[in-house]
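Severity: low
Component: inverse-folding endpoint
Summary: output formatting inconsistent between runs
Steps to reproduce: submit the following structure tokens with default settings.
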């Protein structure tokens, strides 16, 4: 079995795949860069107990991380639990991507995993939108070339900034707005953040379509905020909850044939 781990700024996603490459469980933990290796090990042990799985069945692990301070302790925990260090998405790992970036190591490991997965499922040219702590937009052209992308504050970051900077605005959760035109403060905030983000995504996609004349652009979205936002976008966007996890699985298989 393969344990895939995606460490994000806010959450860490853990997925377990069986020998038939079927997802056995998908779990989410809070990302805490201050945790020790023992604390991380306990988290993993609890997950396996919760989902009635056995640690000894794991034959490999792979990690994508955008939180460098956590990497050492995470690697130590994985090594002591499973007997060998994890494969870490980064330089030296085969992905099949051609990164057309000024500094290739600056491309987040999660973006690489998402791009690898998207290329298995969709036809380039394509746009990949990951709505997490930050909203990242990656562009892949034909020939498996990662052209680059855009990065902007995530939905929750924008909401927190709005509440923190405006004395009379409360902290709210991200939910579907009741209507476009809100009738109270909370409804106005929800309508603004959801329709505003959807409009921003549509506007960026309009401009990206212009970069690929006479081409059909595939668009896929992932991340915890994507299900709420995508349904209000006017462009056709496919939501894939498992995009990064499946990408980690594919990368592991590419390097362990």
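Observed output (run 2 of 3):
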């Amino acid at each position: 079995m393969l344990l895939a781990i995606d460490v994000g700024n806010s959450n860490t996603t853990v997925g377990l795949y069986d020998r038939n490459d079927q997802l056995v469980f998908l779990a989410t933990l809070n990302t805490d860069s201050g945790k020790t290796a023992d604390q991380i090990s306990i988290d993993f042990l609890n997950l396996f107990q919760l989902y009635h799985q056995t640690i000894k069945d794991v034959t490999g692990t792979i990690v994508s991380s955008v939180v460098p301070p956590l990497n050492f302790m995470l690697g130590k925990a994985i090594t002591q639990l499973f007997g060998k260090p994890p494969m870490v998405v980064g330089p030296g790992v085969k992905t099949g991507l051609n990164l057309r970036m000024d500094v290739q190591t600056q491309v987040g490991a999660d973006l690489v995993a998402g791009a690898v997965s998207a290329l298995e499922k969709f036809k380039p040219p394509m746009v990949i939108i990951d709505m997490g702590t930050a909203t990242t937009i990656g562009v892949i052209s034909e020939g498996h070339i990662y052209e680059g992308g855009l990065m902007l504050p995530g939905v929750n970051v924008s909401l927190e900034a709005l509440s923190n900077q405006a004395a009379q605005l409360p902290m709210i959760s991200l939910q579907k707005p009741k209507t476009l035109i809100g009738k109270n403060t909370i409804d106005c905030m929800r309508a603004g953040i959801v329709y505003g983000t959807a409009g921003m995504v549509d506007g960026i996609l309009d401009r990206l379509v212009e970069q690929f004349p006479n081409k059909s652009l595939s668009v896929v979205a992932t991340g915890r905020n994507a299900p709420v936002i995508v349904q209000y976008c006017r462009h056709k966007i496919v939501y894939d909850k498992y995009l990064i996890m499946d990408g980690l699985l594919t990368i592991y298989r590419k390097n362990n044939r």
